């Protein structure tokens, strides 16, 4: 029986899959941190029911707490997309498309 030598491509492929899953998994805690930071600046329901609309600083508080999180993960996901396009890793691209879905769900909640 002829033994087949282990090619380095198998190792590289598995490493790439782990990197892709790690990047996808990093988006989940990022989205949770985003929701936690954004929830601090939401209006209190009792104030809205009483027609109290205090909008003096709410948008600024929201932006100050949320924009750094969104910027970090936008750059991370754009870099990930650039690697997929440059190395033509189309199968990883399918997993990449779930990252925007994670952020869409977190913004709709």
SSE arrangement:
Elements: H1 8-39, H2 45-49, H3 58-87, H4 90-96, H5 98-108
Helix pairs in contact: 1-3, 1-5, 3-4
Explain what you see.
- This protein has 5 helices and no strands.
- The longest helix is centred in the first third of the chain and has 32 residues.
- Helix content is 78%, strand content 0%.
- Helix 1 runs antiparallel to helix 3, helix 1 packs parallel to helix 5 and helix 3 packs antiparallel against helix 4.
- It has one domain.
- The protein is an all-alpha fold.
Poorly predicted ranges: none
What is the residue-averaged pLDDT?
A: 76
Distance between the termini: 59 Å
Global geometry: elongated
Tell me the structural class. mainly alpha
- Characterize the largest beta sheet: strand count, sense, and whether it forms a barrel: none
Order of helices and strands: HHHHH
Helicity level: over 70%
Oligomer category: single chain
Q: Please provide the count of β strands.
A: 0
Beta-strand fraction estimate: under 5%
Backbone CA Rg: 21 Å
Number of helices: 5
**Count of domains:** 1
């Amino acid at each position: 029986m002829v033994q087949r030598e282990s090619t380095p491509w198998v190792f590289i492929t598995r490493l790439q899959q782990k990197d892709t899953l790690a990047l996808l998994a990093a988006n989940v805690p990022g989205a949770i941190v985003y929701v936690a930071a954004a929830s601090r600046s939401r209006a209190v329901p009792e104030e809205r029911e009483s027609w109290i609309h205090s909008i003096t600083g709410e948008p600024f508080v929201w932006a100050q707490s949320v924009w750094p999180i969104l910027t970090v993960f936008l750059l991370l996901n754009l870099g990930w997309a650039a690697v997929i396009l440059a190395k033509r890793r189309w199968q990883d691209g399918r997993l990449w498309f779930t990252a925007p879905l994670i952020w869409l769900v977190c913004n709709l909640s």
